[in-house]
Amino acid sequence: MIDLSRFPRVNLCHQPTPLEPLPRLSEQLGGPRIWIKRDDCTGLATGGNKTRKLEFLIGEALAQNAEIVVTQGAVQSNHVRQTAAAACRHGLACHALLEHRVPNTTDAYEASGNVFLDHLFGCTLEYRPAGLDMNAEAQQVVDRMNAEGRRAYMIPGGGSNETGALGYVVCAQELVAQAAERDMRIDWIVTATGSTGTHAGLVAGLYAAGADIPVMGVSVRQPRDRQVAAVHRLAESTARLLGAPGLPVEAIRVDDGYIGEGYGIPAPSTIEAIRTAARTDAILLDPVYSGKGFAGLLGLARAGFFGPDDNVVFLHTGGAVALFAYENAFQ
Hints:
This protein is of the alpha/beta class. Helix content is about 40%, strand content about 15%. Helix 2 packs across helix 3 (about 80-90), helix 3 packs parallel to helix 5 and helix 7 (about 160-180) crosses helix 9 (about 225-240).
């Protein structure tokens, strides 16, 4: 068991989240045995993977006596929605910068789904054009607020730094314990990989715990080489924070075959994956992250990448509230 007690932390998450079989999908694929780790059920503001990260990020903000948290993301950011909710839970204000990252959007994309919930949680918003260094933009806002005496705390996009990645060190321990309770061998974990914190935290947590379970990250935005490098940087620094240096780059596995036209643009394989999950085992995925991750799982399974008797765990990162912003993609 990895001792995380020295890190400030608050309670935001329903945990452990369920680990459930997907029997109808497994039967449809003819193997492997597919399982789902339900981090869409973390409980905060419809759930999602950022809630685990925010337990440590909000904990650190409170330890630093912050009164407002500042973060950033794309317009339909699951992370911003969960950050705004976490701030409400602990009496903090929240301000977010939203990037117009996705081209040719609809009115629903700009106002419904996560954006509607951002407003509901009282988050103040400002917008930026595509292509800027959004963490740098957010840091400028933090610096200005601190100069004004507001005690602002910076949360990077996706909550993806060493502090946030600790949330997925917790998840890695949880999965290992759940598998042991079932006397079950996990052969693969598959998840979407974007801002890197979830993927890196899982790999670092498994590595520090001595659990030899490979993690396949299905990229939602960057080509493989860039994503591998980004995940490895954060996984290595997170492992070092845990006292487990030397995490090899070979531990980072990425499949970039399901990005489609770019971030936030569902590929045909994304739409097919969302429909498949809904109609086989009543699982709701999102069009940006979990839909592309699940498309990768389906593609790898159909190509015979996994053994027919393998136990493959799909880590569901949540985000189904964004479906309401993408209704036109399903028509």
